[in-house]
Design goal:
single chain; Tetracycline Repressor, domain 2; mainly alpha; 2 domains; about 200 residues; Arc Repressor Mutant, subunit A; 9 helices
């Protein structure tokens, strides 16, 4: 894994439609490789071949494999933030159980959309230094959850949010590792776990 944040940044930003399409093809190819063959199979030569671009074209935008991974992680975090933001908006004026249910389902949909890819990217993220954009995306997501818990009158909402993150991550990680795909069952278990913890905290 890279030792510096600079190694995670693109060499240049695509500005024209053709270059944007090339970058999108590279990231899509990398996603497919990770999802089908696993994180260990990812390398720039295979990505270029799968994307239908020359290795020179790939290196114009990404200095190495980890820069591709960092771009995929940023993309994942942007999508997750959008899902959570939508759930927060729809949960305005809802009670605890309803608001938490919307947040749980938003997170689950994100993870189960591409479970192998999501699991691999989260593992890669834990081993890489976080660039400023990824840090901001994660902070914004946390702030949204803290805001919901504060509105619901949860004591010490920041600590409660950290506990909920850890609880949900553990349950979802274990479920994905076991190959679970039953959205409704997993959603029900997560809702009961989170509302039980938060409800106990407000008693």
């Amino acid at each position: 894994m890279p030792e510096t944040i600079a190694a995670l940044h693109p060499r240049k930003r695509p500005r024209q439609e053709r270059s944007r399409r090339t970058c999108a093809d590279i990231l899509a190819a990398a996603s497919d490789i990770i999802e089908v063959k696993g994180l260990s199979a990812l390398n720039t030569n295979l990505v270029a071949e799968r994307a239908g671009v020359s290795i020179g074209s790939l290196y114009q935008y990404f200095p190495g494999k980890n820069a591709i991974l960092a771009a995929l992680i940023r993309e994942m975090r942007r999508d997750m933030l959008a899902d959570i933001l939508s759930a927060v908006d729809r949960g305005k004026n809802q009670d605890l159980a309803s608001a938490i249910g919307l947040l749980v389902d938003a997170s689950l949909r994100h993870h189960l959309r591409h479970p192998a890819l999501s699991e691999a990217l989260e593992r890669a993220e834990s081993e890489m230094p976080l660039d400023a954009e990824t840090q901001a995306l994660k902070s914004d997501k946390a702030a949204l959850i803290v805001g919901v818990l504060d509105r619901l009158g949860i004591e010490n909402p920041r600590q409660a949010a950290m506990d909920v993150f850890a609880m949900c991550h553990g349950i979802v990680h274990t479920a994905l590792q076991a190959g679970e795909t039953d959205f409704d069952d997993l959603s029900d278990r997560l809702r009961r776990a989170v509302t039980g913890y938060l409800g106990a905290g407000t008693a």
